[in-house]
Design brief:
The complex is a heterodimer.
Chain A: H1 3-17, E1 33-38, E2 46-49, E3 54-60, E4 65-69, E5 74-78, E6 84-89, E7 94-100, E8 104-111
Parallel strand pairs in A: 1-3, 2-8
Antiparallel strand pairs in A: 3-6, 4-5, 4-7, 7-8
Chain B: H1 18-38, H2 57-68, H3 75-94, H4 97-101, H5 123-137, H6 143-161, H7 163-169, H8 171-180, H9 189-194, H10 202-219, H11 222-227, H12 231-249, H13 262-288, H14 303-332, H15 343-362
Helix pairs in contact in B: 1-14, 1-15, 3-8, 3-13, 5-8, 5-10, 6-7, 7-8, 10-12, 10-13, 13-14, 13-15, 14-15
Classes of the chains: A mainly beta, B mainly alpha.
């Protein structure tokens, strides 16, 4: 292997791999993450949560619809006048879709 | 089980931290132009000579028999995880596994032996891969139809044109064979890359592979949802952008440099699908054995591990691509143009790599 390649490889390893994020554990949040969502005026965003945090979603809809939190498999049903209330603990890290079925994205939870 | 954009899985990776993305892009840029100045000035990678190969028909008969036993609910995981991602990763490590395993290749044993038309090149493969990625990313429910059509077309192609059909027109075999050139088990990967035959449609195959993976990231963002553009439009536009940018940067070379993008595809495939393979792969194996209520272990998808794999894979792919392209352009360009002639391709590669990292941040 030529010295040049060695230098390049070393550069890569140094810059790419050693700077991976530290497993920083953010302080445990005091309160739950509370979100009010609407199926009829869905405007999906990313919302950050901390692993272990309680999450409370209230979803309103004019039409009867099933609401699903992917990855946690929490289900609810919203109808006109009766919002769906979903409560769960975000105990896995990752990015998870909250959807009104079949495919209306309501919010994306980023759990770190 | 619920169906997501991939057809399988319920979890996306965490976005890469922004500082990691910026550092990665800076390293790619720096390494590229360092390479331009410091790497050798005379081409050193000769074309690897393809070895004659065994006929693997008993393995294919076994695979065909095994497929008859797959439970119906296991098919999405089998196809989207174990096959699409698993075969890609195995090809990078071991060699062209799909050409060994593909049961449809049995059709070539009863061939009429017609000559495969040269001008078709890899175009049927590019179309087949585009159709598959459309099923994967836009319409997972169409999977049974796709599989039936794929089997029918390839049995017909194999009967008419024999083995050549699979080498050139079967998208999955073309994909697997391209990635297999990186396998360390078959000699110097750079020599294997240079040996990639340049056929019409090769650039299209590369564009579909890179563009579809990129669109998978784009399409899963809330921003894309808010735009309310149909997913198939996004897929086609992304593939078109990759193809167009390559044609623009490499118009002097045609498809002669397409093989040097293979490491970038490989790096991005690993980065994009690593967690899907290690988590949903477990569920896929369980489903094959008829276990429907398994809970995969998340440990291999720990945020630090995933982020490290992603950044290392993308940067390693970029570096291999730069070295491979450098060596090839030395052969293609007249001496006085060797330095300047490489710049558009380098800029393109830095663009793809930074774009890939940015998508891991945004998507």
């Amino acid at each position: 292997m030529s010295p040049v390649i060695r230098v390049l490889l070393a550069l890569l390893v140094l810059a790419g791999c050693s700077s991976a994020p530290q497993p920083a554990s953010p302080p445990a949040p005091d309160g739950p993450l509370v979100l009010e969502l609407s199926v009829d005026q869905a405007s999906p965003q990313r919302v950050e949560a901390v692993r272990g945090q309680a999450v409370e979603l209230t979803v309103t809809s004019d039409e009867p619809v099933d609401v699903h939190v992917h990855g946690f498999d929490v289900l609810g049903r919203a109808e006109s006048g009766t919002p769906a209330v979903l409560k769960f603990t975000a105990d896995r890290t990752g990015t998870f879709d909250v959807e009104a079925h079949p495919d209306t994205l309501l919010v994306q939870l980023v759990v770190r | 089980m619920t169906v997501l954009a991939h057809g399988v899985g319920a979890r996306h990776d965490l976005p890469l931290p922004l500082d990691l993305v910026l550092q990665g892009a800076a390293v790619a840029l720096l390494a590229s132009f360092l390479a331009l100045g410091l790497l050798w000035a005379k081409p050193r990678f000769d074309t690897a000579v393809p070895k004659p190969e065994r006929d693997w028909w008993p393995v294919r008969v076994l695979v065909a028999a095994g497929l008859l036993l797959v439970p119906a609910q296991a098919w999405p995981h089998l196809v989207f995880v174990l096959f699409w991602v698993g075969v890609a990763v195995l090809s990078m490590l071991l060699g062209p596994v799909w050409r060994v395993l593909n049961p449809l290749r049995l059709a070539a044993r009863v061939t009429l032996g017609r000559t495969y038309p040269e001008r078709l090149g890899h175009w049927p493969a590019a179309l087949g891969l585009l159709a598959f990625t459309w099923v994967e990313l836009v319409e997972p429910d169409a999977l049974p139809w796709f599989l039936a059509a794929y089997a029918a077309v390839n049995v017909a192609g194999g009967v008419v044109f024999g083995h050549t059909w699979f080498e050139r027109a079967d998208g999955f075999e073309v994909f697997s064979t391209l990635l297999s050139r990186l396998s360390p088990l078959h000699g110097n990967p750079f020599r294997a890359l240079v040996a990639t035959p340049v056929r019409s449609g090769l650039v299209a195959v590369v564009a579909v592979l890179l563009g579809s993976t990129a669109f998978d990231s784009i399409g899963s963002t809330p921003t894309w949802e808010r735009l309310a553009v149909p997913d198939w439009v996004g897929l086609v536009v992304t593939v078109g952008l990759v193809a167009g940018s390559y044609q623009l940067a490499c118009r002097a070379f045609g498809g002669e440099l397409a093989h040097s993008l293979v490491p970038i595809i490989a790096g991005y495939v690993v980065a994009h699908y690593f967690s899907l393979l290690v988590v949903e792969g477990q569920r896929g194996v369980a489903l094959l054995f008829g276990v429907t209520d398994s809970t995969p272990d998340d440990a291999l998808a720990a945020p630090v591990l995933v982020a490290s794999v992603q950044v290392c894979a993308v940067l390693a792919g970029h570096l291999l691509a730069v070295v491979s392209a450098h060596d090839r352009t030395l052969r293609l360009l007249p001496p006085q143009k060797q330095l300047t002639g490489q710049v558009p391709l380098l800029v393109l590669m830095v663009g793809y790599t930074s774009g890939g990292l940015a998508l891991l941040f945004a998507g």
